[in-house]
Design brief:
By secondary structure, the protein is α/β, with parallel strands linked by helices. Helix 2 (50-68) packs across helix 17 (560-568), helix 9 runs antiparallel to helix 10 (384-393) and helix 17 crosses helix 18 (581-602). It binds one RNA strand through strand 7, strand 8, strand 12, helix 7 and strand 13.
Length: 719
RNA sequence: GGGUACGUAGCUCAGUUGGUUAGAGCGCUGCGUUCACAUCGCAGAGGUCACAGGUUCGAAUCCUGUCGUGCCCACCA
């Protein structure tokens, strides 16, 4: 054997060996209890990053461990079309060529993005393989596969028929850059230093007197339809019911009372802009106020804004402040810290706007989803995330599932004639007006005509589903639901959902809700949440900081085994982990240590030695290493059963390096004929225990030792 | 404002229901290469477990408070 272990030569060899032998393919055995993980489908719009390497490692450890335990084991891989994110990525590529999606048109854009996605998907599959992912490629799925789409439509139809999906005009989070509505979960709030302006609104009845309101967004005053104060605020008691005048546009608006107003904030009087602020929208519902939309979907002031019409929001703000100053209506301005919502995908500032969208009612879906966790039917690791989950689930607003983008599942909704569409949809998609009765038809297949008026010219809703609406059904759509296939019957509910804590709300909660709703069963029994991989100093990895560790480059350099074990060594569930090249190098050294123990054991060929361990001949050191091996077996098994990957890895590291190599191997040197069989046994079992963590080097060594069976991968877990 | 987590060796972090001299990796110091491995070995230094109280026979671990840090959520006009 060579002096140095060459991962470049072994890794590819063993992966294709395993694949050819069909070891990744799950086989149903009704007599045995299955183990199954649905792989969180990576977004097919780029390459794998270190976060993917972490999930591959954790899931592959669980999969290989359970497979060796003899359970029929399925790890189902997939890829996500990742709606908005992919569309943003592709639009940025187009931008470099000076183009927009509108230059291509919907069909061409879709097919280009499709090709782009397929290319990325193929790259990622290759990268997953390189990391040793022992998933069942024969069952691979993509979120836009036709059966998956059908299942997604089926679910929506069910929701619609049962009154849980509805269309409504609501205040939604609007991303001007993506030109789409977003769900609450897709908006990231960040604190920002801003200004709080105090603006004088003249009183209509008393000349020369004012009520002073405070705002961080003076430009929205164009859409003010009231001034609100707290009912218990004595300062304004006799103004309630009076009128104020919105400066610059001279609109007369009522002064009203509403308990949502905080007396202590600013002057205690707030301007109410129902069309552009969630709180104000609610006030308008309580007081039946008009909603004047002054900011358009293009982020410019609408015609309602009088002389400011057509200005961009920022320009309008500057102009309005200037004009207010001229009229001496700007009382003062003070620095103010407040949070601004941004689009999670493109980072543009979110504009709350009223628009007609499709929603899914949350409370009826959330209730059972809370119960199954409370009852312990689904367990979270670590447990503290259960509390975070409850808090979120108990305060859910209805879920806006329609997106005004082109990349994704187009809504399975048809309207009889264009009047079913909103003005926004007509404009964004440049659609012609067509006659019809306006009937709404939700169907998994294109309907031939309107059931009401028999009009055959139906218009399909141009919007697409929120990506998370389809991925929220991933645990069962991948198993061919709603058909009750053998795979579905046998493997569902799945065993573990292993994913990052950052998508607890976006994804995990939706899977639980939709899983229960669609299948009447929990989608998985355990939720294991991992943290974010940071650099050696705990900084978030980013291209601009130049501290990104590319898992594939690192795997080339140090081996997939090294990066895998580095990712679990000394890290804990639910917490972020720091990873530097030093740590990976250290694990490469561990790989080489294993290799050299193997050289010592395997390259020695005594003329004769007994191939069975005979208890009478055992010396103290032999007994010691064998009993340590036994303890190691027990501890590693227990740790893996309890998802304590780091413990298991450290136990093995300590045992192999410090007890086996440093002590026993040294002591064995004087009496090789007697110890050879023990060396072989200890090494073989060590490899088997380590295999889930470091699949390649363990296979390479195992194959060179006396063994039964074809591969370490399918050998029984040491007892 | 609410929630949650963290503060342990120079650095990065483990430490599962409280129990003997508190651990690992990297780094550091000294010595050592024919004889598996310098991607190595041997020996070693280094911590009042943020701080202050409390519970206990016993606390890094449980409780209360203080200081500091991170993250999440929220209708912070």
């Amino acid at each position: 054997m060579e002096k140095i272990y060459k991962h470049q030569e072994t890794e590819g060899k063993w992966y294709s060996f395993w694949e050819k032998k069909g070891f990744f393919r799950a086989k149903i055995d009704p007599k045995k209890e299955p183990f199954m993980i649905i792989m969180p489908p990576p977004n097919a719009n780029g390459e794998l990053h270190i976060g993917h390497a972490l999930f591959v490692t954790l899931e592959d450890i669980l999969i290989r461990f359970n497979r060796m335990l003899g359970r029929p084991t399925l790890w189902l891989p997939g890829a996500d079309h990742a709606g908005i994110q992919t569309q943003v990525v592709y639009e940025r590529l187009l931008e470099k060529q000076g183009k927009t999606r509108y230059d291509l048109g919907r069909d061409k854009f879709y097919s280009e993005v499709y090709d782009f996605t397929m290319k990325n998907k193929a790259t990622m599959e290759n990268q997953l393989s390189r990391l040793g992912a022992s998933c069942d490629w024969s069952r691979e799925k993509f979120t836009l596969d036709s059966e998956i789409s059908k299942a997604v439509y089926h679910t929506f139809k069910k929701l619609f028929n049962e009154g849980l999906a509805y269309r409504g005009e609501r205040l939604v989070n609007w991303c001007p850059r993506c030109t789409t509505a977003l769900s609450d979960a897709e908006v990231a709030h960040k604190e920002k230093e801003a200004t709080l302006w105090f603006i004088k609104y003249p009183l209509a009845e008393e000349k020369g007197k004012f009520i002073i309101v405070t705002t961080t967004r003076p430009e929205t005053m164009l859409g003010d339809t009231a001034v609100a104060v707290n009912p218990t605020d004595r300062r304004y008691k006799n103004l309630i019911g009076c009128k104020a005048i919105v400066p610059l546009i001279n609109r007369e608006i009522p002064i009203i009372e509403d308990s949502v107003v905080d007396k202590k904030f600013g002057t205690g009087a707030v301007k109410v802009t129902p069309a552009h602020d969630p709180t104000d929208f609610e006030i308008s519902e309580r007081h039946d106020l008009k909603r004047v939309q002054v900011i358009g979907f293009d982020n410019r002031i609408t015609d309602e804004g009088g002389k400011y019409a057509g200005l961009k929001v920022n320009e309008a703000r500057r102009q309005i402040l200037e004009d207010l100053k001229k009229e001496s209506l700007l009382e003062k301005e003070v620095p103010h810290l407040h949070s601004v919502g941004r689009c999670e995908r493109c980072n543009d500032v979110i504009e709350p706007l009223v628009s007609l969208q499709w929603f899914v009612k949350m409370p009826p879906l959330a209730k059972p989803a809370i119960e199954v966790v409370k009852e312990g039917k689904i367990k979270f690791i670590p447990k503290r995330y259960e509390k975070i989950y409850f808090q979120w689930m108990e305060n859910l607003r209805d879920w806006c599932v329609s997106r005004q983008i082109w990349w994704g599942h187009q809504l399975p909704i048809w309207y009889c004639g264009s009047k079913g569409l909103s003005d926004l949809q007509m404009k964004l998609n440049n659609l012609p007006e067509t006659p019809g009765c306006g009937e709404i038809i939700v169907s998994t297949e294109e309907p031939k005509q309107c059931p009401k008026c028999h009009n055959a010219k139906l218009v399909r809703d141009p919007d697409t589903f929120d990506t998370w609406f389809s991925s929220g059904q991933w645990p069962f759509t991948t198993l061919s639901w709603p058909e009750k296939t053998q795979d579905f019957q046998y493997f569902y509910p799945t065993s573990v959902m292993e994913t990052g804590y950052e998508i607890l709300f976006l994804w995990v909660s939706r899977m639980i809700m939709l899983g229960l709703y669609c299948t009447d069963k929990i989608p998985f029994r355990t939720v294991y949440l991992h943290g974010i991989v940071r650099d050696a100093k705990g900084q978030k990895m980013s291209k601009s900081k130049g501290n990104v560790i590319n898992p594939l480059t690192i795997a080339d350099q140090y081996g997939a085994d090294a990066i895998r074990i580095a990712l679990v060594f000394n890290s804990t569930p639910g917490n972020d982990l720091n990873l530097g090249e030093d740590k990976i190098r250290g694990m490469r050294n561990f790989t080489n240590k294993i290799w050299n123990i193997a050289r010592f054991v395997i390259d020695f060929k005594p003329d004769f030695y007994d191939h069975k361990i005979s208890t009478e001949k055992l010396k103290l050191e032999d007994k010691k290493i064998l009993s340590e091996l036994k303890k190691t077996k027990e501890k590693v098994t227990k740790s893996l059963e309890n998802y304590r990957f780091s413990d298991a890895a450290q136990i093995l590291y300590q045992f192999i390096w410090h007890q086996f190599a440093d002590i026993y191997v040294e002591k064995s040197k004087d009496r090789r004929e007697e110890t050879q069989v023990i060396l072989e046994e200890v090494l073989k079992v060590s490899m088997e225990l380590l295999h889930p963590f470091m699949p390649y080097v363990t296979e390479e060594v195992w194959q060179r030792l006396p063994h039964e069976g074809k591969s370490i991968m399918v050998t029984p877990w040491p007892k």
